[in-house]
Amino acid sequence: MNSPRRPVFCFLFLIVIYSSQAALNLSLESIVHSLINRSHELDSNDYRAESLRHKRAVATSSPAPEEYEIEIEISFENTSLLESFKAYYKNLSFPIQVINTNLSTDILSMEITTVCRSSGNEMLCSCESGYKWLPEVCLSNLTCQNYQHSAPEDCNCLKELPARGPYCQQVILKDITLRMSVKLSMDFQDDLRNSSSALYRSYKTDLERAFRQGYRILPGFKSVVITGFSPGSIDVAYNVKTSKPTPAQMNEANEQVKRLINSTYKMDHLSFEASLDNETKFSIVPEIIYEGDTVMMKCENEVQSTNVTWRHVERSTDIQNSSEFSIYTYLNHQVSVSILTIHNISLIDAGEYLCSLTYDIFYYEGRKKVNVISTEFVASEDLKVMCDNNPVSLSCCSGKDFNLSNIEWNQEGLINIPGISSIDSGCSKLTIKADGTQCLSGSAGTEVFYICSFLSGYGANSSKKIKVTFTSVANITVTADLIAISEGQNFSIKCISDVSSYDSVFWNTSAGTRINPKFYVTTTCNDRAESVLTVNTATREWNGTYHCIFRYKNSFSIATKDVTVYPLPLKHDILLDPLEADVPCGGFCHLRCCINEAGDYRVTFQIDGLSFPAVKKAQGNRVCYGYSLNTTIWCSKTVQPFCNFVNSVGESVQSTTMTLYLVPEENITCQDSNIGNGKAGKMIQKLCQFSDIPNNSGHGVGGTITYICEGSTWKVKKNDCIAAPINNLLGLTKALLMSPEQEEKLLTYLQDLSSSTEKVENEIKSSPGNLKAIITILELLSTVPTQVTSDMMKHVLSTVNVILGKPILNTWQILHQQQANESSRLLDSIERFSRVLHEGISAIPSITQVNVQMRGLVTTAGQVTDYDQHFVFPNSNLWGHVIIDRHQIESLQPNSSIVTLAYPTLKAILPQGTLDKNIVNGLVMTTTVSQGVTKPFRISMKFKKNDLSLVAPQCVFWNFHISNHTGGWDNTGCFVDQVKEESVLCTCNHLTSFSILMSPDSPDSNSLVQILLDIISYIGLGFSILSLAACLIIEAFVWKSVTKNRTSYMRHVCIVNIAASLLIADSWFIVSAVIHDQRYLLSETACVASTFFIHFFYLSVFFWMLTLGLMLFYRLVFILHDTSKSIQKAIAFSLGYGCPLVISIITVGVTQPRNVYMRKNACWLNWDDTKALLAFVIPALIIVVINVTITFVVITKILRPSIGDKPSIQEKNSLFQITKSIGVLTPLLGLTWGFGLATVFQESSAVFHIVFTLLNAFQGLFILLFGCLWDKKVQEALLHKFSLSRWSSQHTKSTSLASSTPVFSMSSPISRRFNNLFGKTAVTKAPPCSDGSLVGCCSS
């Protein structure tokens, strides 16, 4: 190739040469130049595959024509010829025939590929449109200055013609599919939806023919296919397969289509649209995106346009430049580049993004789905680590797709304890191990924060802090003083840890028995912790060694302390004889103090400071110390001797005192060597051990027996003796509560109690003392356990079965005469046992006895069923059924136990309490849950009636806290759901012991009266609410007409607030009735709210009546004193709502904490317990008295006005209306609640109830009639609004006509008496109206 310094054209000829010879020998070497070898062809897919292509056609008759592509270089001396040649070339028509003698040649096409022009001292060789230099040519030659920023291998212009190699080569255009559409301005027909219809085929054939002819001029055109028709006129969708055209080529082709298409199709020439697929290069950095990253999306198109739009597809919104998004679009040579940058990307930014470019009629788009990975990860909870060299792992865990290798661990704190990181199961873990040398000695805990941090490298970052408290192994110190005490004294041991952190603290005996937590208290200070073991009454069981143990994780720190307890009787274990006695003056009295142990004590009797040595005498296991006292020196006195025990270390204990009455010998009438002496009528108590009561069991009996001297004989007044087995067990039980080892002995004690109770059943029948002792033992033992086994519960119920037997019921009656709450104590004790029955067992055993049965259930996570238990007592002909819905049980913690016990005879011994006429008429059933229930817990129970003749069933529970904590039946939270002939279904919203109460009364007139009262109440309240609503509507309608002066304005303000308050109060009354009737589980809370609002708004009615009265009094008495409307309103609202609010809040605040705010059977103020109803009645009645007084004062003032006391006519009319309202409504309201107060008393007449209900139900109607419609201004305003114009004009002229006088007007016959009373006389001529006068002020 030459390197000319003159203009050069390079032509590419496509010629076909025809020859008549069989073998053609044509030499074209002078003009044909091989452009590229085979290697060039394989390396470039973007250029023509063959620069020199030889095609042969096979024919049988003649040689085939040969086709050649020839490059020709033409040089011009004169540069002006370039343009002339190019113009000449464009006008050529092909093919061009060249005929020679031996061959015929056709030139099919000719293209200009390369043009070289002079530019100063340089020759610039550029490629024509559709051609490019080969990449290797670009790399081996200098490119033009305009292209220095493009890729080195991509160029269109060189600074000189290459010395070797081909000229510019044609760009091989790949096939693309243009998705196009055009609109036909024709009505759409449904047949165009059906591709098999004739219309569809006709349209398709015609249009495709025109499209093929028009688009064949596009470069590389292959085909055109119509894909469908859609409405919107008619939208034709079609695909054109071709090489990528330029906009000019596309517009030219569209113009061609317009000319070719039949005019009947009415094509819209401006509706052509074309879009290209897969022409947009879309890239995203980074590929994995984390929340908080800065993300860059790049959209590239080989189009010279910057008309690029970005869109978030799911949000259906275009993206604009903002603080979060930034868009930068520019042209890089012939490539459009648009970059969308998302700063600090969030999870909501995830989704599909669309980049679209519009270039002429072309539409390019690229789509990418963006997934954003959350940087949230879950870190370990804060840890406490003991510095004992045991490894501990910290972790930060994340969801899927999270690159855990980007997580780094750091730490902050006073000490440096590094760890080893690892990745395991979606978590980054750090394993740390601390020993004593790394932790601060004696520290209460050193905090180190371990931070797991995530950095993506593109801006996303996240971190979590885990607080690890390193605690050194505790050093424990204990009380240094020697602890040596005697029985009955107290001691304490203080155990101090120099570290404040611990998981648990407990005390053990040397044998490993854990001491009951009630004996010690543990507290924590800033830098230490201490536990103090305190024993108030030491027994010899406390003699030994004790271990104070602080546990932290798996580390135990222990300190020990020895305790020495010397024997000494406890005060309550010293038995005295006599307890009291009459002693003849000057005689001898034998005193003795006994203990049930053989100890070495020095015992003396002390009397008035004198000490007398006692003589020891052993009687089996009992040791007595006696002394014969000569009473001569104490004649006519009462002396109180006691015995003093001194042990080996000099510690002493005094017994309780005996009481000796020294009387003249002649007054002694009863004498007995065992019982003692006494005068007539004397009652004395004596320990049963020292009485003459037969005792076959030896010296173990307990309790007391009371004797009375009748005549000359001692007779038993009351026998409270306790059988020996029971008494011994009672003593052991009391000692157990003071013992360090309690739970270990509990099973044995309960077993002994069960067997002993069965043995002494006959003694229980005869002595209430035995029964009381058994109840006391059960009560004491129920406070011991933290868990109860099934064996323990069997022994408890075996004991209960005996003492609830029918033969023992008479003993219960005697015991209740002495002490009323023994049955309540028994029930409370059994409940405590049942609540701790769940620990350590997988199922609740069923226990069946004659007088008690137990059933239960242990809840299991994921296997919750209804709780459904049946109880049948054939001997008592009673049964019961307990049901708890599974949804209630699901609210309990897993492995909770539900236990129900049923008793057929307990109903006979529980006191009836305040519900005197009612009788327990079924089983008593107790249901408890091991885990505390903090919200309403619905339980249903069905009871078989014991006595079918009883009526009016109530569902009740045993409330241990009422009746001064002696217990009683209460119906709060319990409701009757269903009553059948022989059973009652109850529902309660809490758990405890339940039963049903029924009344022996027959359904007489009382029930009929109640039904009548209910009917009157609901009908009356309906009328009342409608009347009050009508009153408020009327007031709103005539407000401007009737409030022209200040007095009238304030009157109507009061009437509106009276009506509104009563309307709200009546509405709350209905709400409270619905709450009570429907028995909602949350009815107690709702009932409190209802009671509060009823109380508040009923009080507001009366206080607004008081405001009305005080305003009337003020306007008539203080005529010359004028107060602004705003001040009057402020005072009125403060009095009308402020005072009721204060009274209501005080009432609920004082009574609700004690659960005595409401009545038990209604949502209204309590009367029986607290008289809370007086907080309503007293203010109401006081206001009635005040208003009645004001009414009389006002009437007197009007009838006898003072000189100068002449308010304006308008004011006087308003005052008349106020006086009428007060004069009528106050007595009505006061009378209503006067009858209401009478109904709270017992045995009140049904007449009071009926009258109160009638008056109360129709209060709203009274206010409508007497507070609203009775007002003449209101009547005139209503007539003015609704009457015909003729009637209005007549009424304006004269209001004296009978035909135009309203029923309740001041001039009607009905109210003429009131007019005269208030000093109003009829006038036929109206006075002139002044400015600002009232509507109707000129009427008579």
From TrEMBL:
The keyword Metal-binding does not apply. Gene3D superfamilies: 2.60.220.50, Immunoglobulins (2.60.40.10), Rhodopsin 7-helix transmembrane proteins (1.20.1070.10). GO terms for biological process: cell surface receptor signaling pathway. SUPFAM superfamilies: Immunoglobulin, SEA domain. It is a multi-pass membrane protein. Residues 280-371, 474-564 form the Ig-like domain. The chain crosses the membrane at residues 1015-1038, 1050-1075, 1095-1118, 1130-1152, 1172-1200, 1221-1241, 1247-1270. It comes from the Eukaryota. Residues 1013-1271 form the G-protein coupled receptors family 2 profile domain. Residues 172-286 form the SEA domain. It is found in: Cell membrane. It comes from Monodelphis domestica. One of its GO terms (cellular component) is plasma membrane. Its main location: membrane. Residues 1-22 form the signal peptide. The keyword Zinc does not apply. One of its GO terms (molecular function) is G protein-coupled receptor activity. Residues 840-1004 form the GAIN-B domain. InterPro entries: ADGRF3/5_N, Adhesion_GPCR, GAIN_B, GAIN_dom_sf, GPCR_2-like_7TM, GPCR_2_Ig-hepta-like_rcpt, GPCR_2_secretin-like, GPCR_2_secretin-like_CS. This is Adhesion G protein-coupled receptor F5.
